[in-house]
Write a structure and sequence with these properties.
The chain is mainly α. It contains 4 helices and no strands. The chain is elongated, with a radius of gyration of 22 Å.
């Protein structure tokens, strides 16, 4: 690393302008984490009594996790796009009806699953 390039990096306005945003988004991440913990706790209690998840909490949880992902990407320099409120609020991701099976296995995955099932049957 040369000293000239270090001086240029220290004079880079975009880096110094990013730092206050990073601080604000770190605080937003902490708040998002607290709200998400609340959503989880309320959802657990609701599911215990109602027997199924509460739809509005599912939507909020989906949006919060997507927002947290956007925050992580910005804070770790993996994205240059600033998250909400400088971008749109994340949309709701469709609920996975059965999280333990693949949604759209490819042909190779299906073939591998078939081979695994055959070997499983032989071991029984």
């Amino acid at each position: 690393m040369t000293s000239g390039s270090m001086k240029e990096r220290l004079k880079d306005e975009s880096y110094w302008l990013r730092l206050p945003f990073m601080l604000l988004f770190f605080i937003a991440w902490q708040l998002t984490e607290l709200v998400l913990i609340g959503v989880i706790l309320v959802q657990v209690v609701y599911r215990l009594f109602a027997g199924q998840p509460q739809p509005q909490l599912l939507a909020l949880g989906s949006q919060l996790t997507r927002y947290a992902y956007q925050l992580f990407r910005y804070l770790t320099f993996n994205a240059e796009t600033k998250p909400f409120p400088f971008a749109e609020w994340p949309s709701v991701e469709e609920v996975d009806p059965n999280p333990y099976t693949p949604q759209n296995p490819s042909a190779t995955d299906a073939a591998e699953m078939e081979v695994d099932n055959d070997s499983f049957k032989q071991n029984q």
